[in-house]
Each structure stands twice: as C-alpha cells, then as structure tokens.
Amino acid sequence: MPVPPMFEPAPGARAAAVLILFGEGPDGPDVLLTERAATLSKHAGQPAFPGGRIDPGDAGPVAAALREAWEEAGVEPAGVDVICALPELYLSHSRHRVTPVAGWWREPSEVAPGHPGEVALVARVPIADLADPANRLTVRHPSGIKMGPAFRAGGMLVWGFTAAVLTQVLVAGGWDRPWDPSHVEDLPPDVLSLASRG
Q: From which residue to which does any coiled coil extend (predicted)?
C-alpha cells in the first residue's frame, strides 16, 4: 500500500501501532473498530482501530498492536494470525508514527471495552457495510475545508485517520465499490467539539 505524502513519517515522532483485525462474522467478513471515550484529551469520541504507543517492553509494533487490542477490546492474542505490518503512517495531530498491523481473527474471542475511561464501544463492522456506497461520504470542517472520506457504519461516523486507512484497505482487498465523493457533509458539532480538544 502506498503512503500518501501527508502521512509520510516525520523525524522525532513517537512510535505507535494499531491492529487492523479482519474476521468472519455473522454478516460476512468484518473488521474490528473501537470508539474512544468522550472523556479523553486526545482523539476523544473518535472511531479507531485498537492500538496505542509502543511501550519499551513491547517487542516491536506487532506485539504492541496485539497488546493494545487485548487491553482495549479483549482480543485474545493467541487467536490472531498476523498477516503483515504495513508501512508507517504519520499523524501530525498527535505527532505519532503509526504502524498498522493486519491480522486474521482465526479464533474470535468475546470483545467489550477494556477500560471505560479509554474505550466507549467495540464493534465488528461488516466489510459490506463499509463498501456500501450509501454509507460513504466526504466530511468537511464548517470552515469549508474538506477533511477526507468517511463512513457511516457500526453505529459510528468513521472519519480521519481510520477512514483514510479503511479506504485504502477496501481498495487493496478488492472490496471497493464506486461511490460519490461529492456527497459532502459538515462534521457534526458534537464530533467537532470533541476533536477540537487536541
């Protein structure tokens, strides 16, 4: 997967990892997403892949992604087959360089928010819902600045970094369907308010 210029890693950024976890759910192939707690100071209320900073005790990004998925959503690491680690992506907003780790959920475990102060929701979102053109849109800041692709799926408005990665995942997986990027909506005020915290 190519790295867009806006996501090229920057020197001095803190290392982090996320788990893009695919499984076979009741509604077909799916991917695991979380919604961050509204009380957090960074990325509050935003849908995300399970993940976080790579700790000194982690044996690299794969170990960090699996640990975070266990802590945030209850994903048993032993039930995940790691497919690959994708190229690092830079999040300028939080100054992290993030390694997405793709995994197959060979033995799914029961999932739930691991810490209510960090995670508000855990959802297995069907790939078919993400690929459905009716669930896709472009979001913009009320100032008029377009902020990129978004999805309405799993009871969430998925936007930002997570939506950008999912867009590339759909293309790479052959699931992408034609949709109308000119369908533009402003970010809802509550989402914008949470995002403005930092």
A: none
Burial of 48 (0-12, 13-18, 19+ CB in 10 A): buried
| CA 94 – CA 90 distance, rounded (Å) | 9
DSSP the chain: ----GGG---TTPEEEEEEEEEEEETTEEEEEEEEE-TT-SSSTT-EE-SEEEPPTTSSSHHHHHHHHHHHHH---GGGEEEEEEPPPEEETTTTEEEEEEEEEESS------S-TTTEEEEEEEEHHHHH-GGGEEEEE-TTS-EEEEEEEETTEEE-HHHHHHHHHHHHHTT------TT-EEEPPHHHHHHHTT-
Burial class (CB in 10 A: 0-12, 13-18, 19+), 122: buried
pLDDT at 3 over 80: no
Say if residues 113 and 48 touch (Cβ distance below 8 Å). Answer: no
Predicted confidence (pLDDT) at residue 94 exceeds the cutoff of 90:
no
Computed over every residue of the chain, the mean pLDDT equals 88
Q: What is the pTM of this model?
A: 0.89
Six-digit token pair at 163? Answer: 């939506």
